[in-house]
Design brief:
about 450 residues, 2 domains, nine-stranded mixed beta sheet, five-stranded parallel beta sheet, about 20% strand, binds zinc ion
Amino acid sequence: MKLVIDGARIWNGASEFYDKGTIVIEDGKIEAVLAGDERDRYKPPAEARVIDGDGKLAIPGLINAHTHLYSSLARGMALPNYSPHTFTQILEQMWWRLDKALDPSSVRMSALVGAMEAARCGVTTLIDHHASPHAVTGSLAAVKDAVNKDVGLRGAFCYELSDRDGMEIRDEGIEENLDFLASDDPSDSMSTALFGMHASFTISDDTLSKVAERIPNGAGVHIHVAEGPEDEEQCQSEHGMRIVQRLDKFNLLRERSILAHCLHIDEAEKDLVAESKAIVVHNPRSNMNNAVGVFDMEGFLKRGIPVGLGTDGVGSNMLTELFTAGILQKVSTGDSLAAGFPDLQKILFENNPQIASRLLGAQLGRIAPGYAADIALFDYNPPTPIDAGNVLGHLLFGIAVHDMHVSDLIVNGELVIGSGRFVNLDEDALYARAREEAASLWARIS
Ligand SMILES: [Zn+2]
């Protein structure tokens, strides 16, 4: 059945803007974007579902290039004896306590809540990094089901392998990643698999050798790199080399590999990342919240490295994340011109779609014929002129600053949110269940 969005303001994600346009969607793809006379002549077929786009702004569905849905039920959680002074202590005192308490039911609920909140923010693709060391086996299928089936978003999934919970759980992590990679259907653009690893400092050479031996050709890894300064320090003292060199030694810098953070890597490591064509994902609000450092945005972009944007579990509001990415560069360099609109637009609206398209094998990130029909619609009545040249200003200083949620969200041609409500989910009932799930999860945390 055709889906038609009629009469919306449309930004195609690049240089085209229509004050009044019609988007025709069929079989998960955008069939046509019509304006002017063409639009006047177009009559949707009687059986088409038509969304009235009047007063709405349509933009390409947003992509969160690094997140942790498992953290969704941590909101408001009180942790006794929480007083971290280093990044490793933040992990030990919070996230590793939480992930150890996750069971299959809370894994699924965390993913469901995280994906619903992402959808409300206009996100249509999530690149997730999952950990639940006492519920490893089958966890990726559960997260995938919540994201793909329950909510209807696209996702890239992996399990966060590490040595920190002992060899038995490590081995389970290896098998979970491999099983999920083996079950991946390359023709399904709603889902894909990566091989997840926590970080260099929680992975021994023995573990890395096992990964290197068994990871399929062409598969990528998804790993935190030099998020805190400790990661590099440990790598140099323990392994006599820097992290990116270590990953390279095990042949894990690949075109499908995602290196999250990369805050403390040096210039030679950046060159090596550029050469490998691996992906780097910046997570400004998480970095600020953990006080771990400032990303060298210019240094990565000038090397042509595909720098994407993620939230690292701090929600999924990609427009407010982008806003923060900009002001963080300005305040940290003392230069109000740092991270200008072209760089910001490139990161969220060129690089993130390229990253997700590379992983999922779909054409994502544009409202144009032939692209996947992933579209976010906001009720947005601009009080100032809007066009292709200033639409990013409206997204950042209008929609992001005012924390606006989507009115409608379309993923793969399917309506996920319509007129502000989830089409296939009872949000109030699910949130009531989530509160119960969170309460029992918190009670299990030691
Ligand atoms: Zn992360």
